[in-house]
UniProtKB/TrEMBL annotation:
<keyword id="KW-0808">Transferase</keyword>
<keyword id="KW-0597">Phosphoprotein</keyword>
<feature type="modified residue" description="4-aspartylphosphate">
    <location>
        <position position="61"/>
    </location>
</feature>
<feature type="domain" description="Response regulatory">
    <location>
        <begin position="8"/>
        <end position="129"/>
    </location>
</feature>
<dbReference type="InterPro" id="IPR036097">
    <property type="entry name" value="HisK_dim/P_sf"/>
</dbReference>
<dbReference type="InterPro" id="IPR001789">
    <property type="entry name" value="Sig_transdc_resp-reg_receiver"/>
</dbReference>
<dbReference type="Pfam" id="PF00072">
    <property type="entry name" value="Response_reg"/>
</dbReference>
<dbReference type="Pfam" id="PF02518">
    <property type="entry name" value="HATPase_c"/>
</dbReference>
<dbReference type="GO" id="GO:0005886">
    <property type="term" value="C:plasma membrane"/>
</dbReference>
<dbReference type="InterPro" id="IPR005467">
    <property type="entry name" value="His_kinase_dom"/>
</dbReference>
<feature type="domain" description="Response regulatory">
    <location>
        <begin position="417"/>
        <end position="533"/>
    </location>
</feature>
<protein>
    <recommendedName>
        <fullName>histidine kinase</fullName>
        <ecNumber>2.7.13.3</ecNumber>
    </recommendedName>
</protein>
<dbReference type="InterPro" id="IPR003661">
    <property type="entry name" value="HisK_dim/P_dom"/>
</dbReference>
<feature type="domain" description="Histidine kinase">
    <location>
        <begin position="182"/>
        <end position="398"/>
    </location>
</feature>
<dbReference type="InterPro" id="IPR011006">
    <property type="entry name" value="CheY-like_superfamily"/>
</dbReference>
<feature type="modified residue" description="4-aspartylphosphate">
    <location>
        <position position="466"/>
    </location>
</feature>
<dbReference type="InterPro" id="IPR004358">
    <property type="entry name" value="Sig_transdc_His_kin-like_C"/>
</dbReference>
Length: 548
Protein backbone atom coordinates (compact mmCIF):
# COMPACT_ATOMS: atom_id res chain seq x y z
CA UNK A 1 0.00 0.00 0.00
CA UNK A 2 1.27 3.50 -0.82
CA UNK A 3 2.79 5.52 2.03
CA UNK A 4 0.44 8.12 3.57
CA UNK A 5 1.98 11.57 4.24
CA UNK A 6 2.16 12.59 7.88
CA UNK A 7 -0.70 14.88 8.97
CA UNK A 8 0.34 18.43 9.83
CA UNK A 9 -0.69 20.53 12.87
CA UNK A 10 -0.55 24.32 12.68
CA UNK A 11 0.02 26.24 15.92
CA UNK A 12 -0.73 29.99 15.70
CA UNK A 13 0.22 32.31 18.59
CA UNK A 14 1.75 35.79 18.63
CA UNK A 15 3.48 35.15 21.98
CA UNK A 16 6.84 33.48 21.38
CA UNK A 17 6.95 31.77 24.76
CA UNK A 18 3.44 30.38 24.43
CA UNK A 19 4.17 29.27 20.88
CA UNK A 20 7.36 27.49 21.95
CA UNK A 21 5.62 25.79 24.88
CA UNK A 22 2.79 24.47 22.68
CA UNK A 23 5.04 23.25 19.85
CA UNK A 24 7.44 21.61 22.33
CA UNK A 25 4.54 19.86 24.03
CA UNK A 26 3.20 18.61 20.68
CA UNK A 27 6.67 17.50 19.56
CA UNK A 28 6.73 15.01 22.48
CA UNK A 29 3.96 12.96 20.85
CA UNK A 30 4.84 13.67 17.19
CA UNK A 31 6.76 10.42 16.68
CA UNK A 32 4.17 8.33 18.50
CA UNK A 33 1.15 9.85 16.74
CA UNK A 34 3.04 10.33 13.43
CA UNK A 35 2.35 13.98 12.73
CA UNK A 36 4.35 17.13 11.91
CA UNK A 37 4.13 20.46 13.76
CA UNK A 38 4.33 23.87 12.01
CA UNK A 39 4.35 27.20 13.88
CA UNK A 40 3.04 30.66 12.89
CA UNK A 41 3.42 33.99 14.80
CA UNK A 42 0.44 35.82 13.27
CA UNK A 43 -2.84 35.40 11.41
CA UNK A 44 -1.23 36.53 8.18
CA UNK A 45 1.55 33.94 8.50
CA UNK A 46 -1.05 31.30 9.32
CA UNK A 47 -2.88 32.10 6.07
CA UNK A 48 0.36 31.71 4.10
CA UNK A 49 0.93 28.29 5.69
CA UNK A 50 -2.65 27.23 4.85
CA UNK A 51 -2.01 28.16 1.22
CA UNK A 52 1.02 25.83 1.14
CA UNK A 53 -0.13 22.88 3.26
CA UNK A 54 -3.12 20.82 4.26
CA UNK A 55 -3.60 20.55 8.06
CA UNK A 56 -5.27 17.96 10.24
CA UNK A 57 -6.07 20.61 12.89
CA UNK A 58 -5.17 24.22 13.69
CA UNK A 59 -4.48 25.47 17.25
CA UNK A 60 -5.37 29.15 16.97
CA UNK A 61 -4.83 31.80 19.63
CA UNK A 62 -7.85 34.10 19.93
CA UNK A 63 -6.17 37.28 21.13
CA UNK A 64 -3.61 38.37 18.57
CA UNK A 65 -2.73 41.91 17.44
CA UNK A 66 -3.76 42.89 13.93
CA UNK A 67 -5.77 39.91 12.65
CA UNK A 68 -7.20 38.12 15.68
CA UNK A 69 -8.14 34.48 15.91
CA UNK A 70 -11.75 34.95 14.79
CA UNK A 71 -10.73 36.89 11.69
CA UNK A 72 -8.03 34.36 10.90
CA UNK A 73 -10.48 31.48 11.24
CA UNK A 74 -13.00 33.23 8.99
CA UNK A 75 -10.35 33.85 6.32
CA UNK A 76 -9.19 30.21 6.48
CA UNK A 77 -12.70 28.83 6.04
CA UNK A 78 -13.55 31.15 3.16
CA UNK A 79 -11.05 29.22 1.02
CA UNK A 80 -12.65 26.10 -0.49
CA UNK A 81 -9.65 23.84 0.02
CA UNK A 82 -9.25 24.77 3.71
CA UNK A 83 -12.94 25.27 4.55
CA UNK A 84 -13.21 22.01 6.50
CA UNK A 85 -10.00 22.19 8.57
CA UNK A 86 -10.98 21.83 12.25
CA UNK A 87 -9.86 24.78 14.43
CA UNK A 88 -9.30 24.63 18.19
CA UNK A 89 -9.31 28.10 19.71
CA UNK A 90 -6.84 28.71 22.58
CA UNK A 91 -7.57 31.53 25.01
CA UNK A 92 -6.40 32.64 28.45
CA UNK A 93 -9.89 33.90 29.36
CA UNK A 94 -12.94 31.89 30.27
CA UNK A 95 -15.23 32.38 27.30
CA UNK A 96 -18.79 33.35 27.97
CA UNK A 97 -21.63 31.91 25.93
CA UNK A 98 -21.54 34.76 23.39
CA UNK A 99 -17.82 34.24 22.81
CA UNK A 100 -18.39 30.53 22.35
CA UNK A 101 -21.22 31.20 19.89
CA UNK A 102 -19.02 33.60 17.93
CA UNK A 103 -16.21 31.07 17.84
CA UNK A 104 -18.44 28.29 16.60
CA UNK A 105 -19.88 30.62 13.95
CA UNK A 106 -16.32 31.24 12.74
CA UNK A 107 -15.74 27.49 12.39
CA UNK A 108 -14.39 26.47 15.78
CA UNK A 109 -14.31 22.75 16.51
CA UNK A 110 -13.39 23.13 20.18
CA UNK A 111 -11.87 25.38 22.88
CA UNK A 112 -8.72 25.02 25.04
CA UNK A 113 -7.91 27.31 27.93
CA UNK A 114 -4.46 28.22 29.14
CA UNK A 115 -2.66 26.86 30.93
CA UNK A 116 -3.25 23.89 28.64
CA UNK A 117 -3.55 20.51 30.33
CA UNK A 118 -1.21 18.15 28.33
CA UNK A 119 -3.43 15.06 28.66
CA UNK A 120 -6.45 16.93 27.31
CA UNK A 121 -4.40 18.43 24.45
CA UNK A 122 -2.99 14.99 23.61
CA UNK A 123 -6.45 13.42 23.56
CA UNK A 124 -7.94 16.12 21.35
CA UNK A 125 -5.00 16.19 18.96
CA UNK A 126 -4.98 12.36 18.66
CA UNK A 127 -8.62 12.36 17.55
CA UNK A 128 -8.09 14.93 14.78
CA UNK A 129 -4.81 13.36 13.60
CA UNK A 130 -6.39 9.91 13.41
CA UNK A 131 -9.37 11.36 11.55
CA UNK A 132 -7.05 13.15 9.08
CA UNK A 133 -5.06 9.98 8.46
CA UNK A 134 -8.27 8.02 7.88
CA UNK A 135 -9.57 10.65 5.48
CA UNK A 136 -6.31 10.71 3.55
CA UNK A 137 -6.35 6.92 3.32
CA UNK A 138 -9.93 6.98 2.06
CA UNK A 139 -9.00 9.61 -0.54
CA UNK A 140 -6.14 7.47 -1.79
CA UNK A 141 -8.37 4.41 -1.95
CA UNK A 142 -10.96 6.45 -3.85
CA UNK A 143 -8.28 7.60 -6.31
CA UNK A 144 -7.07 4.03 -6.76
CA UNK A 145 -10.64 2.83 -7.26
CA UNK A 146 -11.24 5.60 -9.78
CA UNK A 147 -8.06 4.66 -11.65
CA UNK A 148 -9.06 1.00 -11.67
CA UNK A 149 -12.52 1.98 -12.92
CA UNK A 150 -10.97 4.07 -15.69
CA UNK A 151 -8.64 1.18 -16.57
CA UNK A 152 -11.61 -1.19 -16.73
CA UNK A 153 -13.56 1.26 -18.89
CA UNK A 154 -10.57 1.64 -21.23
CA UNK A 155 -10.08 -2.13 -21.37
CA UNK A 156 -13.78 -2.60 -22.06
CA UNK A 157 -13.66 -0.02 -24.87
CA UNK A 158 -10.62 -1.75 -26.40
CA UNK A 159 -12.36 -5.10 -26.10
CA UNK A 160 -15.53 -3.78 -27.74
CA UNK A 161 -13.43 -2.19 -30.49
CA UNK A 162 -11.55 -5.45 -31.07
CA UNK A 163 -14.85 -7.36 -31.19
CA UNK A 164 -16.26 -4.90 -33.72
CA UNK A 165 -13.07 -5.00 -35.81
CA UNK A 166 -13.21 -8.79 -35.74
CA UNK A 167 -16.84 -8.74 -36.88
CA UNK A 168 -15.97 -6.33 -39.70
CA UNK A 169 -13.03 -8.53 -40.73
CA UNK A 170 -15.26 -11.61 -40.66
CA UNK A 171 -17.87 -9.85 -42.80
CA UNK A 172 -15.18 -8.74 -45.24
CA UNK A 173 -13.71 -12.23 -45.42
CA UNK A 174 -17.17 -13.70 -45.94
CA UNK A 175 -17.84 -11.15 -48.69
CA UNK A 176 -14.51 -11.98 -50.34
CA UNK A 177 -15.22 -15.71 -50.11
CA UNK A 178 -18.59 -15.16 -51.78
CA UNK A 179 -16.90 -12.98 -54.39
CA UNK A 180 -14.34 -15.66 -55.21
CA UNK A 181 -17.13 -18.22 -55.47
CA UNK A 182 -19.03 -15.92 -57.83
CA UNK A 183 -15.86 -15.23 -59.81
CA UNK A 184 -15.36 -18.96 -60.30
CA UNK A 185 -18.99 -19.25 -61.39
CA UNK A 186 -18.69 -16.30 -63.79
CA UNK A 187 -15.49 -17.64 -65.35
CA UNK A 188 -16.64 -21.24 -65.70
CA UNK A 189 -19.81 -20.37 -67.62
CA UNK A 190 -18.14 -18.66 -70.61
CA UNK A 191 -15.18 -21.06 -70.51
CA UNK A 192 -17.59 -23.99 -70.66
CA UNK A 193 -19.40 -22.44 -73.62
CA UNK A 194 -16.11 -21.72 -75.43
CA UNK A 195 -14.83 -25.25 -74.79
CA UNK A 196 -18.06 -26.82 -76.04
CA UNK A 197 -18.15 -24.62 -79.14
CA UNK A 198 -14.49 -25.40 -79.93
CA UNK A 199 -15.18 -29.14 -79.53
CA UNK A 200 -18.19 -28.82 -81.84
CA UNK A 201 -16.04 -27.20 -84.53
CA UNK A 202 -13.74 -30.24 -84.39
CA UNK A 203 -16.52 -32.75 -85.04
CA UNK A 204 -16.49 -34.23 -88.58
CA UNK A 205 -20.28 -34.02 -89.02
CA UNK A 206 -20.70 -30.39 -87.95
CA UNK A 207 -22.95 -28.41 -90.30
CA UNK A 208 -22.05 -25.01 -91.72
CA UNK A 209 -24.88 -23.37 -89.75
CA UNK A 210 -23.72 -25.01 -86.49
CA UNK A 211 -20.14 -23.92 -87.17
CA UNK A 212 -21.24 -20.30 -87.66
CA UNK A 213 -23.22 -20.40 -84.43
CA UNK A 214 -20.29 -21.98 -82.58
CA UNK A 215 -17.94 -19.25 -83.81
CA UNK A 216 -20.35 -16.55 -82.66
CA UNK A 217 -20.58 -18.22 -79.25
CA UNK A 218 -16.79 -18.28 -78.95
CA UNK A 219 -16.57 -14.63 -79.95
CA UNK A 220 -19.38 -13.54 -77.62
CA UNK A 221 -18.13 -15.49 -74.61
CA UNK A 222 -14.54 -14.34 -75.20
CA UNK A 223 -15.77 -10.76 -75.10
CA UNK A 224 -17.63 -11.58 -71.88
CA UNK A 225 -14.42 -12.96 -70.35
CA UNK A 226 -12.60 -9.81 -71.44
CA UNK A 227 -15.19 -7.67 -69.67
CA UNK A 228 -14.75 -9.71 -66.48
CA UNK A 229 -10.99 -9.22 -66.60
CA UNK A 230 -11.45 -5.49 -67.30
CA UNK A 231 -13.80 -5.17 -64.31
CA UNK A 232 -11.30 -6.93 -62.04
CA UNK A 233 -8.47 -4.69 -63.24
CA UNK A 234 -10.63 -1.59 -62.86
CA UNK A 235 -11.50 -2.68 -59.32
CA UNK A 236 -7.80 -3.02 -58.47
CA UNK A 237 -6.99 0.37 -60.00
CA UNK A 238 -9.94 2.04 -58.27
CA UNK A 239 -8.96 0.66 -54.85
CA UNK A 240 -5.30 1.69 -55.32
CA UNK A 241 -6.12 5.11 -56.82
CA UNK A 242 -4.32 4.39 -60.11
CA UNK A 243 -7.11 5.15 -62.58
CA UNK A 244 -5.98 7.91 -64.96
CA UNK A 245 -8.58 9.97 -66.82
CA UNK A 246 -8.14 11.23 -70.40
CA UNK A 247 -10.27 14.34 -69.99
CA UNK A 248 -12.01 16.19 -72.80
CA UNK A 249 -15.32 18.08 -73.13
CA UNK A 250 -18.11 15.50 -73.46
CA UNK A 251 -21.82 15.93 -74.19
CA UNK A 252 -23.29 13.40 -71.75
CA UNK A 253 -26.62 13.32 -73.62
CA UNK A 254 -24.91 12.28 -76.88
CA UNK A 255 -22.85 9.70 -75.00
CA UNK A 256 -25.96 8.15 -73.43
CA UNK A 257 -27.76 8.05 -76.79
CA UNK A 258 -24.84 6.17 -78.34
CA UNK A 259 -24.77 3.68 -75.46
CA UNK A 260 -28.52 3.12 -75.65
CA UNK A 261 -28.29 2.54 -79.39
CA UNK A 262 -25.74 -0.22 -78.75
CA UNK A 263 -28.03 -1.80 -76.17
CA UNK A 264 -30.99 -1.64 -78.59
CA UNK A 265 -28.95 -3.08 -81.46
CA UNK A 266 -27.85 -6.05 -79.36
CA UNK A 267 -31.41 -6.56 -78.08
CA UNK A 268 -30.50 -6.16 -74.41
CA UNK A 269 -33.34 -3.69 -73.76
CA UNK A 270 -35.91 -5.43 -75.97
CA UNK A 271 -37.90 -6.88 -73.05
CA UNK A 272 -38.12 -3.60 -71.13
CA UNK A 273 -40.08 -0.37 -71.37
CA UNK A 274 -37.29 2.21 -71.48
CA UNK A 275 -38.24 5.89 -71.12
CA UNK A 276 -35.53 8.39 -72.03
CA UNK A 277 -35.50 12.15 -71.44
CA UNK A 278 -32.14 13.78 -72.13
CA UNK A 279 -31.16 17.43 -71.81
CA UNK A 280 -27.81 18.39 -73.31
CA UNK A 281 -25.14 18.71 -70.61
CA UNK A 282 -21.37 19.02 -71.03
CA UNK A 283 -18.73 17.77 -68.60
CA UNK A 284 -14.94 17.62 -68.60
CA UNK A 285 -14.48 13.87 -68.52
CA UNK A 286 -13.12 10.63 -69.89
CA UNK A 287 -15.48 9.26 -72.55
CA UNK A 288 -14.60 5.63 -71.83
CA UNK A 289 -15.11 6.01 -68.07
CA UNK A 290 -18.34 7.99 -68.48
CA UNK A 291 -19.66 5.22 -70.73
CA UNK A 292 -18.64 2.76 -68.03
CA UNK A 293 -20.60 4.70 -65.40
CA UNK A 294 -23.79 4.73 -67.48
CA UNK A 295 -23.39 1.14 -68.68
CA UNK A 296 -22.94 -0.15 -65.13
CA UNK A 297 -26.04 1.73 -63.94
CA UNK A 298 -28.09 0.46 -66.87
CA UNK A 299 -26.74 -3.08 -66.45
CA UNK A 300 -27.71 -2.94 -62.79
CA UNK A 301 -31.24 -1.83 -63.68
CA UNK A 302 -31.59 -4.59 -66.29
CA UNK A 303 -30.15 -7.19 -63.93
CA UNK A 304 -32.60 -6.53 -61.11
CA UNK A 305 -35.71 -5.66 -63.13
CA UNK A 306 -37.84 -8.58 -64.42
CA UNK A 307 -38.70 -8.57 -68.16
CA UNK A 308 -41.64 -6.29 -68.84
CA UNK A 309 -40.46 -3.78 -66.24
CA UNK A 310 -39.85 -0.08 -66.70
CA UNK A 311 -36.54 1.80 -66.74
CA UNK A 312 -36.52 5.61 -66.73
CA UNK A 313 -33.40 7.52 -67.79
CA UNK A 314 -33.37 11.25 -67.12
CA UNK A 315 -30.55 13.73 -67.78
CA UNK A 316 -30.82 17.30 -66.50
CA UNK A 317 -28.40 20.21 -66.23
CA UNK A 318 -28.49 22.97 -63.62
CA UNK A 319 -26.09 25.86 -63.09
CA UNK A 320 -23.39 23.71 -61.49
CA UNK A 321 -24.00 20.03 -62.28
CA UNK A 322 -25.15 17.58 -64.88
CA UNK A 323 -27.51 15.16 -63.14
CA UNK A 324 -28.19 11.64 -64.45
CA UNK A 325 -31.02 9.64 -62.89
CA UNK A 326 -31.66 5.95 -63.63
CA UNK A 327 -34.85 4.57 -62.07
CA UNK A 328 -36.15 1.01 -62.41
CA UNK A 329 -39.28 -0.84 -61.30
CA UNK A 330 -37.29 -3.88 -60.20
CA UNK A 331 -36.72 -5.82 -56.99
CA UNK A 332 -35.69 -2.77 -54.96
CA UNK A 333 -33.14 -2.54 -52.17
CA UNK A 334 -33.67 -3.52 -48.54
CA UNK A 335 -33.17 -0.75 -45.97
CA UNK A 336 -30.24 -2.52 -44.29
CA UNK A 337 -28.47 -3.00 -47.65
CA UNK A 338 -29.07 0.52 -49.01
CA UNK A 339 -26.13 2.22 -47.18
CA UNK A 340 -23.74 -0.43 -48.53
CA UNK A 341 -24.75 -0.79 -52.22
CA UNK A 342 -21.62 1.09 -53.34
CA UNK A 343 -19.27 -1.02 -51.22
CA UNK A 344 -17.02 -3.54 -52.96
CA UNK A 345 -18.44 -7.09 -53.27
CA UNK A 346 -21.90 -6.06 -51.99
CA UNK A 347 -24.96 -7.46 -53.78
CA UNK A 348 -28.38 -8.70 -52.89
CA UNK A 349 -29.15 -12.30 -51.94
CA UNK A 350 -26.77 -14.99 -53.08
CA UNK A 351 -29.49 -16.84 -54.98
CA UNK A 352 -30.34 -13.78 -57.02
CA UNK A 353 -26.67 -13.04 -57.63
CA UNK A 354 -25.95 -16.53 -58.87
CA UNK A 355 -28.95 -16.48 -61.17
CA UNK A 356 -28.40 -12.99 -62.52
CA UNK A 357 -24.63 -13.10 -62.71
CA UNK A 358 -22.14 -10.32 -61.96
CA UNK A 359 -19.24 -9.78 -59.61
CA UNK A 360 -20.76 -7.18 -57.29
CA UNK A 361 -18.21 -4.49 -58.19
CA UNK A 362 -20.13 -2.46 -60.80
CA UNK A 363 -21.66 0.06 -58.40
CA UNK A 364 -18.41 0.38 -56.46
CA UNK A 365 -16.72 1.36 -59.74
CA UNK A 366 -19.54 3.79 -60.50
CA UNK A 367 -18.96 5.61 -57.22
CA UNK A 368 -15.17 5.71 -57.65
CA UNK A 369 -15.35 6.91 -61.27
CA UNK A 370 -17.90 9.58 -60.37
CA UNK A 371 -15.64 10.80 -57.55
CA UNK A 372 -12.63 10.90 -59.91
CA UNK A 373 -14.69 13.24 -62.13
CA UNK A 374 -15.38 15.48 -59.13
CA UNK A 375 -18.94 14.23 -58.72
CA UNK A 376 -20.89 11.80 -56.58
CA UNK A 377 -23.57 9.13 -56.62
CA UNK A 378 -26.66 8.44 -54.52
CA UNK A 379 -28.98 5.45 -54.23
CA UNK A 380 -32.58 5.33 -53.03
CA UNK A 381 -35.28 2.68 -52.75
CA UNK A 382 -38.59 2.39 -50.90
CA UNK A 383 -37.73 -1.22 -50.12
CA UNK A 384 -38.02 -4.71 -51.63
CA UNK A 385 -40.30 -4.80 -54.67
CA UNK A 386 -40.42 -0.99 -54.93
CA UNK A 387 -37.68 -0.41 -57.51
CA UNK A 388 -34.44 1.56 -57.21
CA UNK A 389 -33.17 5.01 -58.16
CA UNK A 390 -29.55 5.94 -58.78
CA UNK A 391 -28.48 9.56 -59.22
CA UNK A 392 -25.12 10.77 -60.55
CA UNK A 393 -23.91 14.37 -60.24
CA UNK A 394 -20.99 15.58 -62.37
CA UNK A 395 -19.56 19.14 -62.49
CA UNK A 396 -20.89 20.98 -65.50
CA UNK A 397 -18.58 22.67 -68.03
CA UNK A 398 -19.12 25.02 -70.98
CA UNK A 399 -20.71 23.63 -74.12
CA UNK A 400 -18.34 22.99 -77.02
CA UNK A 401 -19.89 23.99 -80.36
CA UNK A 402 -17.03 23.22 -82.71
CA UNK A 403 -16.25 19.60 -83.49
CA UNK A 404 -13.43 18.25 -81.35
CA UNK A 405 -12.72 15.16 -83.36
CA UNK A 406 -12.79 14.00 -86.92
CA UNK A 407 -13.70 10.63 -88.27
CA UNK A 408 -10.77 9.19 -90.18
CA UNK A 409 -11.78 7.96 -93.56
CA UNK A 410 -10.19 4.68 -94.51
CA UNK A 411 -8.88 4.42 -98.01
CA UNK A 412 -7.19 1.66 -99.82
CA UNK A 413 -3.46 2.03 -99.44
CA UNK A 414 -0.49 -0.27 -99.45
CA UNK A 415 -0.50 -2.28 -96.24
CA UNK A 416 2.79 -2.38 -94.32
CA UNK A 417 4.64 -5.57 -93.52
CA UNK A 418 4.07 -6.61 -89.91
CA UNK A 419 6.43 -8.24 -87.44
CA UNK A 420 4.76 -10.00 -84.50
CA UNK A 421 6.97 -10.79 -81.48
CA UNK A 422 4.95 -12.92 -79.03
CA UNK A 423 6.07 -15.82 -76.84
CA UNK A 424 2.63 -17.45 -76.46
CA UNK A 425 2.42 -19.94 -79.31
CA UNK A 426 -1.38 -20.02 -79.62
CA UNK A 427 -1.73 -16.28 -79.31
CA UNK A 428 1.02 -15.68 -81.87
CA UNK A 429 -0.47 -18.12 -84.35
CA UNK A 430 -4.03 -16.75 -84.07
CA UNK A 431 -2.98 -13.09 -84.39
CA UNK A 432 -0.75 -13.87 -87.38
CA UNK A 433 -3.66 -15.69 -89.06
CA UNK A 434 -6.04 -12.76 -88.43
CA UNK A 435 -3.55 -10.22 -89.79
CA UNK A 436 -3.07 -12.39 -92.86
CA UNK A 437 -6.83 -12.52 -93.40
CA UNK A 438 -6.85 -8.71 -93.43
CA UNK A 439 -4.20 -8.65 -96.17
CA UNK A 440 -1.07 -8.06 -94.10
CA UNK A 441 2.18 -9.90 -94.77
CA UNK A 442 3.30 -11.19 -91.37
CA UNK A 443 6.52 -12.57 -89.94
CA UNK A 444 6.70 -13.62 -86.31
CA UNK A 445 9.18 -14.47 -83.58
CA UNK A 446 8.88 -16.20 -80.19
CA UNK A 447 11.36 -14.10 -78.17
CA UNK A 448 13.07 -10.72 -78.15
CA UNK A 449 16.45 -11.67 -79.61
CA UNK A 450 14.83 -13.68 -82.40
CA UNK A 451 12.53 -10.75 -83.07
CA UNK A 452 15.47 -8.37 -83.48
CA UNK A 453 17.10 -10.77 -85.94
CA UNK A 454 13.89 -11.03 -88.02
CA UNK A 455 13.49 -7.24 -87.93
CA UNK A 456 17.00 -6.71 -89.39
CA UNK A 457 16.23 -9.15 -92.21
CA UNK A 458 12.56 -8.34 -92.79
CA UNK A 459 12.55 -4.54 -92.23
CA UNK A 460 8.82 -4.37 -91.34
CA UNK A 461 6.73 -1.20 -91.35
CA UNK A 462 5.01 -2.11 -88.05
CA UNK A 463 6.13 -4.32 -85.17
CA UNK A 464 3.69 -5.70 -82.59
CA UNK A 465 5.80 -6.47 -79.52
CA UNK A 466 4.70 -8.31 -76.39
CA UNK A 467 6.24 -6.78 -73.27
CA UNK A 468 6.70 -9.98 -71.24
CA UNK A 469 9.19 -11.81 -73.50
CA UNK A 470 11.83 -14.37 -72.53
CA UNK A 471 15.47 -13.38 -72.91
CA UNK A 472 15.07 -9.62 -73.31
CA UNK A 473 11.69 -8.00 -72.66
CA UNK A 474 9.68 -5.81 -74.99
CA UNK A 475 11.08 -2.59 -73.52
CA UNK A 476 14.63 -3.63 -74.43
CA UNK A 477 13.49 -4.71 -77.92
CA UNK A 478 12.05 -1.23 -78.48
CA UNK A 479 15.17 0.50 -77.16
CA UNK A 480 17.46 -1.52 -79.47
CA UNK A 481 15.25 -0.94 -82.50
CA UNK A 482 15.16 2.82 -81.81
CA UNK A 483 18.96 2.95 -81.38
CA UNK A 484 19.59 1.29 -84.80
CA UNK A 485 19.48 3.88 -87.64
CA UNK A 486 18.36 1.19 -90.11
CA UNK A 487 15.33 0.18 -88.01
CA UNK A 488 14.29 3.26 -86.07
CA UNK A 489 11.61 3.96 -88.73
CA UNK A 490 9.58 0.90 -87.64
CA UNK A 491 6.30 1.89 -85.95
CA UNK A 492 6.08 0.05 -82.64
CA UNK A 493 2.92 -1.12 -80.87
CA UNK A 494 3.26 -2.60 -77.37
CA UNK A 495 1.03 -5.55 -76.46
CA UNK A 496 0.66 -6.12 -72.73
CA UNK A 497 -1.70 -7.33 -70.07
CA UNK A 498 -0.93 -4.27 -67.94
CA UNK A 499 -2.73 -0.99 -68.45
CA UNK A 500 -1.81 1.31 -65.56
CA UNK A 501 -0.50 4.84 -66.12
CA UNK A 502 2.96 3.72 -65.00
CA UNK A 503 2.94 0.95 -67.63
CA UNK A 504 1.99 3.45 -70.35
CA UNK A 505 4.76 5.81 -69.25
CA UNK A 506 7.38 3.03 -69.43
CA UNK A 507 6.10 1.97 -72.87
CA UNK A 508 6.42 5.47 -74.33
CA UNK A 509 9.81 6.05 -72.69
CA UNK A 510 11.11 2.81 -74.25
CA UNK A 511 10.23 4.17 -77.72
CA UNK A 512 6.84 2.62 -78.52
CA UNK A 513 4.32 4.61 -80.55
CA UNK A 514 1.24 3.02 -79.02
CA UNK A 515 0.14 0.82 -76.12
CA UNK A 516 -2.61 -1.83 -76.49
CA UNK A 517 -3.88 -3.93 -73.61
CA UNK A 518 -4.63 -7.62 -74.14
CA UNK A 519 -6.97 -9.09 -75.22
CA UNK A 520 -6.75 -6.87 -78.30
CA UNK A 521 -9.92 -6.55 -80.37
CA UNK A 522 -9.09 -7.08 -84.05
CA UNK A 523 -10.98 -3.93 -85.08
CA UNK A 524 -9.00 -1.87 -82.57
CA UNK A 525 -5.77 -3.41 -83.84
CA UNK A 526 -6.64 -2.58 -87.46
CA UNK A 527 -7.40 1.02 -86.51
CA UNK A 528 -4.15 1.29 -84.54
CA UNK A 529 -2.05 0.01 -87.45
CA UNK A 530 -3.91 2.28 -89.88
CA UNK A 531 -3.39 5.35 -87.68
CA UNK A 532 0.33 4.67 -87.28
CA UNK A 533 0.90 4.17 -91.00
CA UNK A 534 -1.15 7.18 -92.15
CA UNK A 535 0.62 10.19 -93.62
CA UNK A 536 0.48 12.05 -90.29
CA UNK A 537 1.77 10.21 -87.25
CA UNK A 538 -0.53 10.27 -84.24
CA UNK A 539 0.45 12.14 -81.09
CA UNK A 540 1.51 10.35 -77.96
CA UNK A 541 -2.07 10.70 -76.75
CA UNK A 542 -2.92 7.89 -79.16
CA UNK A 543 -2.60 5.66 -76.14
CA UNK A 544 -6.15 6.76 -75.39
CA UNK A 545 -7.13 3.83 -77.57
CA UNK A 546 -6.14 1.61 -74.67
CA UNK A 547 -7.94 0.96 -71.40
CA UNK A 548 -6.23 2.63 -68.47
Amino acid sequence: MAKVDKPKILVVNDDANSLFALTSLLDQWAEQESYEVIAARSGEEALRQVLMHDFAVILLDVNMPGMDGFETAEAIHQRVRSANIPIIFITAFVADELDRLKAYQKGAADFLFTPVIPQILHAKISVFVALAMKNEELKKQARQLSQRTNDLISSNKRLLQEIEERKVAERQNHAKDEFLAMLGHELRNPLSAISSAASLLGLPAVTADAAVRAKKIIQRQSQHLGRIVDDLLDLSRAMSGKILLNRAPVDVAALIRNCLETYRTTGRTADYDVHVELESGWVDGDVTRLEQIFSNLLDNALKYTPPGGTIDILLEADEEDVVLTVHDSGVGIAAELLPHVFDVFVQGTSTLDRAQGGLGIGLALVRRLAELHGGGVEADSAGPGEGSTFLIRLPRTERITEPNSQIMETTERAKPNVLLIEDNDDGREMMAMMLSCYGYEVRHAADGLQGLAVAREYRPGVALVDIGLPGIDGYEVARRLRSDPDMRHIRLIALTGYGLAEDQRRVLEAGFDMHLVKPVDIDSLMKAIASLTADVAPPAAAVAATRQ
